[in-house]
């Protein structure tokens, strides 16, 4: 109660003039001031707590990450904040001790990553995200391995999204440049026609020009109605295209808001965006 | 004339035997390289599984012979081969279920698999000797030669004869067919591509919905086919003796490593490199030299670099040299 001059207790003990008994102490919370919509979020990792292995230390502490349909959600934060871990938790590669993951209202907390792919989640790991010894086209074919129907149309769509891949279709994916490899990786994940696409640092190790182009492509993917959840090192550029941003610090939500709000927030700017 | 004689002698004693032997090694090495690529360990039980496959084929051959079934002039063993492959495939899948699957489930390091495969090797070794005995077995029948040495001499008028055995012809033709089918399977079919994907990047293959147990099972079936064919061809060409097959493990491993482990093309190239080195180094070159060199330079000795008893040393030396100089093998294989 400090800081409130009206609550100073000095001289307040004289029962002849004040009646200290029975006065109310209940204070109602003010709330966050904005609605979170976690109930209807398309994909949500809700208050997740957990770590690697059966008994590893907790890395995530009550962390919540959600993305709506057709939106781009970006997870940013300092090194070791648990950004990639948070994404892996949503994809079922981390042992959760608390919390749940829901996709379209269905609880998928106990499903394996493979089962989640069949539910419509696509995942692009940070490294080793392509079949290096196989051609670009074979990479895409393998991406659509679980599909029983004709995948040729989807391959065409991927080529339309990433025209450079059409020219390199018969080249081993391992011989491509960093940016092109990322395009193959994203293309491979798109082959299952996912409803959610998860990208773990898609622009790691590519030049700034290629990075801008990749972001453009990601926006294009989001426009087709696919939700995108992305971990990014390049926080500023990522937040610029983000509908929703999560700043994680030590495995917990530190700041949450729309990309623009976070970019405008002086505290976020100072701590994570370098002023 | 002398030059032609030299060429014929060379073909008769070096080229044809080396090509046939190289084909057998290549088939064996393809199996090793597939297991290395997909199950990620070197299978020490390979030689003895080969003996098992050949043994089953021989038992079926004897059975067919006793019933009077034959495909003359081809050896009856070819007819028995599919049955041998099926039984060997069943044995390999059984081995996988009882031994290797457990280690996959507990995510054991590949070295644990290697040690387990040695145990499998000893058991397989015992099973084969228990069933068919340790001695030599004859099962070849049908026409023995495609070209006889005497006919060749009469037809061409050369001093040197050229003999081309049926078993050698069958070996070369079968190897070409098997390799063509295998490459078509790996590069063109969905299942084959999924195997390559699994070998390339297991995690990503899982995320793409490829079922690892299915990939592993198909690998064992292909390996069963490859080694039963290789074992039977070797038995037809030379002789069937369990211990010889165990010894074949060294040149087969050498072939797979020389070519680049995990690379099917390398396995074939490696097989021929090893076969040609073994045959040329242990061959007595005197005959060829006499035809080619002037009389004054005629060699007095056999001009044999190494006795045939030491032929395994050749594979060993090549193996060591390759590991020292180019550990990934001639073709781009996975680093050893």
List the helices and strands and how they pair.
The complex is a heterodimer of chains A (275) and B (336).
Chain A: E1 43-51, E2 60-67, E3 72-76, H1 83-90, E4 95-103, E5 106-107, H2 113-118, E6 121-124, H3 136-143, H4 152-161, H5 163-167, H6 178-190, E7 196-200, H7 208-223, E8 227-231, H8 235-241, E9 244-249, E10 252-257, H9 259-264, H10 266-272
Helix pairs in contact in A: 3-6
Chain B: H1 2-38, H2 46-67, H3 77-105, H4 110-132, E1 145-147, H5 149-156, E2 164-165, H6 166-188, H7 190-200, H8 202-207, H9 212-237, H10 242-259, H11 264-282, H12 286-292, H13 311-325
Antiparallel strand pairs in B: 1-2
Helix pairs in contact in B: 1-6, 1-9, 1-10, 1-11, 1-12, 2-3, 2-4, 2-9, 2-10, 3-4, 3-9, 6-7, 6-9, 7-9, 10-11, 10-13, 11-13
Brief overview:
With 275 residues, chain A is of the alpha/beta class. Chain A has helices at residues 83-90, 113-118, 136-143, 152-161, 163-167, 178-190, 208-223, 235-241, 259-264, 266-272, and strands at 43-51, 60-67, 72-76, 95-103, 106-107, 121-124, 196-200, 227-231, 244-249, 252-257. A six-stranded mixed β-sheet of chain A has the order 6-7-8-3-9-10, sandwiched between helices. In chain A, strands 2-1-4-5 form a four-stranded antiparallel β-sheet, with helices on one face.
Structural class of chain B: mainly alpha
CATH topology grouping of chain B: ABC transporter involved in vitamin B12 uptake, BtuC
Kindly report the spatial arrangement of strands forming the biggest sheet of chain B. Answer: 1-2
Across the major sheet of chain A, the strand order is: 6-7-8-3-9-10
Structural class of chain A: alpha/beta
What's the pLDDT, averaged over the residues of chain B?
Answer: 92
Helix content bin of chain B: over 70%
Distance between the termini of chain B: 48 Å
Q: How many discrete structural domains of chain B?
A: 1
CATH class categorisation of the domain at 37-120 and 239-267 in chain A: Alpha Beta
What is the count of DSSP helices of chain A, taking H or I runs of 4+ residues? 10
In the CATH scheme, what's the topology name of the domain at 37-120 and 239-267 in chain A? Rossmann fold
